[in-house]
Design brief:
The complex is a heterodimer. Chain A is mostly helical. Chain A is 62% helix and 2% strand. In chain A, strands 1-2 form a two-stranded antiparallel sheet. In chain A, helix 1 crosses helix 5, helix 2 (40-49) crosses helix 3 (55-78) and helix 4 runs antiparallel to helix 5 (125-147). By secondary structure, chain B is an alpha+beta fold. In chain B, 59% of the residues lie in helices and 9% in strands. A 4-stranded mixed beta sheet of chain B has the order 1-3-2-4. Chain B is elongated, with a radius of gyration of 31 Å. Classes of the chains: A mainly alpha, B alpha+beta. The interface between A and B is large, with 40 and 31 residues.
Amino acid sequence: MPPLPRPRLPGPGPETLSTLARLLAGGVFAASGWTKVVDVEATVRSVRAYDLLPESLVRVTGTGLPVLELGLAALLLTGLATRLAAAVTALLSLAFLVGVGSAWARGLSIECGCFGNGGFTSNPVPGYVREIALDTVLIGLAAWLLRHPASRFSLDGALRLTTAPTPRSPAQKRVLP
Amino acid sequence: MTNARTARSARERSAVLRAEAARREARRRSIVVTGVVAVVLAAVVGVFVLVQTLQRDAEPAGSATPSTGANGAVTVGQAAAPVTLVAYEDFQCPACKQYEDANGAQLAGWLAKGQVKIEYHPIAFLDRASTDDYSTRALNAAATVLDLAPAGYQRFHDALYAEQPAEGGPGLSNERLLQLAVAAGAPEAQAKADIDGLRFKAWTAKVTEDASKAGVNQTPTVLVDGKPPADHSPAAVAAAVTAALAG
């Protein structure tokens, strides 16, 4: 008896969903990294406005962050080292979430600077809500990618770094590592 | 039949082994690639930070600090005036123009009567609002006036707000900035060299950074004896000044 084909659920498979997750997260980081890198000084100022980091780290963070985001975007859009990219995405989004949440909790009026403009604004709450929602979505996408790193149209796939799950015959015992 | 079953199970077993080996190989390659990518990503970020830092710390040749307002604060009015009004402004900032247009007359009155002195902190953080870094060019021109004809600063300041360019397009040309600087009293030849050569550019970056470090993240930031007025309307500013004069 040939191995039974795995039952296919209706709708796109996990590899297709992973591709969409990559492109979505990669697109967000490409946009936010680009707006930050074209005005590094403004990014440094908006990092400072959050008043979370000591002055000695403000400049390094504000300068490094845009490039990190662009690098992350490149990895996600091309599908290279997807697990690593997903892990960094999750950590970075979590850091942003904490930053925005704490700015809100402390009653700072920051125009979040998520997409580059960091300044103060008289009505920051819609921006905070938007940013928290965005970070939550990004963390969700990263969690999905950590669990399903294999995706279509990815360099990981082209380099055969991810394998499609091998179909198991019903008789096969799980091989313990 | 037994033979057939044995052959099939052997085939299956070897297929499973091959799949296992392929998965192990993929895993090994994946670890190597992930490591290389992590190192490259860290290196790219590190090199960018290093280059930016070195570039920033390198003072461009011929850069200078204006003789007046070196620390970024330009005081206008009588030194003995009892009330100090601090104003952080960007020459490209539309809200600053609104504030100046609405309050210019009463500010001039208080200055003339010696009731208020104004401590201007001009900064340049809106370069992206114009197509030609007007924010920095305007502040550099203001520094030129401070350096060459400090008495003309208020006049130059007022002229820049009167002629403020709209956001999204080009700012005033260097020629126009020069005309206004000369009208404020700066000698033409030196002013032209300073404006065209952005001689005070490093200073514009420094005073902008200093304002950010002082917690100023929006313009205009107005403080009357250290306290912000309720808003920037003439009535609110007048109320703050009256209270400060009484207090």
